[in-house]
Amino acid sequence: MNGSVIIMIENKEYLINIIKSHKDELVESVCVKLEHLSASHYEVIHYEHHLEREEAFIDAFIKSIKEKEPLHFVQHMQMIAKQRSSEGYEIEEVYHAVDIVEETLWNFFITELPLEKFLLNVLTILRKNFNLARIELGKIYLKQAQQKQKELDDLREKFYIYRTGKKDDLSDPENT
After folding, report:
1. What is the pTM of this model?
2. pLDDT value of position 174
3. Which of 78, 98, 107, 128 is the most exposed place for a label (fewest CB within 10 A)?
């Protein structure tokens, strides 16, 4: 993966085990916060569905640590972006949800990990992975917006041809 962040954790098994041992409470915490996002799609999702989604999100993060590569996490975020966009979520809603997961993990690490270089390394990894995830989210939403704009432009041109019987001169920069 170009520009990827290689994860260097001396005690990665320790980190993975501590996340796994507290995964249920982490997922619960995220789900409760997401359910209370007012005026969002997240507040109307069934709680069990929240649990499934957030568990998969945490699992993707764990896998990125295990593999010392954020690729799996980034791919998971790409899947989420496509799915949420097709479900009608605004990009701000998804960003806010990602922020909630990151904040939950951040607070968990601060309280559970020894305050030393290891903690700083973990928090750096967390920040880098989530930044990569946000970038992918933005790319997917932008790409889909561009596709929709092209479809709309094509439809306008077809409608113009239908109404006038001639090609749209508005698409020519010299006629604008």
Report:
1. 0.68
2. 55
3. 107
